[in-house]
Amino acid sequence: xxxxxxxxxxxxxxxxxxxxxxxxxxxxxxxxxxxxxxxxxxxxxxxxxxxxxxxxxxxxxxxxxxxxxxxxxxxxxxxxxxxxxxxxxxxxxxxxxxxxxxxxxxxxxxxxxxxxxxxxxxxxxxxxxxxxxxxxxxxxxxxxxxxxxxxxxxxxxxxxxxxxxxxxxxxxxxxxxxxxxxxxxxxxxxxxxxxxxxxxxxxxxxxxxxxxxxxxxxxxxxxxxxxxxxxxxxxxxxxxxxxxxxxxx
Length: 249
Ligand code: PEP
What we know:
249 residues, alpha/beta, TIM Barrel, binds phosphoenolpyruvate
């Protein structure tokens, strides 16, 4: 049985004061929750998360990591820096990084390898654009994106990754994949994971992301291969984020 996981992606939002209030409200509301939960925050706020969340039920992590260990890579954040702040998770290959920073499947794969080697759980994001869906290319696109990662990691690593299926057309748009549309993709992704490690594929958490909200979370999370959510906008309001975590119970 896979434990559900709900992860907030704060994107480039927050302030010390606003974060303190949001985090304390979320932590207070988590008592008794069955699902695991975490927030992935802008790198400058990792220290705040470590100070405020250590010992709580809410994990924390980053939204990206460099594939390089250290050196002349201005603006990048290394995996050892994420370790310094005890990150449990790191989002890799979010569609906004692919679209605005030109991240390739090869870079996503390299970052996944780096996170795994550091013992930080990579949340590997994949998903098709609207044009690709309308052209009937969804299956091929996500298979290629996942394939690049599977080629780069060992069979034993399958059990250590989290996947997030995020149709690009659903992110921040208010449009959500129907539960069946999402389930169909999740099932195919799990079959692809099984080609690398059949025993581990059934245990991998595959999250759905794309305008998941309190009012649609329950039916999405009821699908057999949807193991949680990667939540953008709704993770910035404690009540909404908590309602989604509760919907995963
Ligand atoms: C995301 O950023 O990963 C995301 C799913 O955003 P939203 O929930 O706002 O669509």
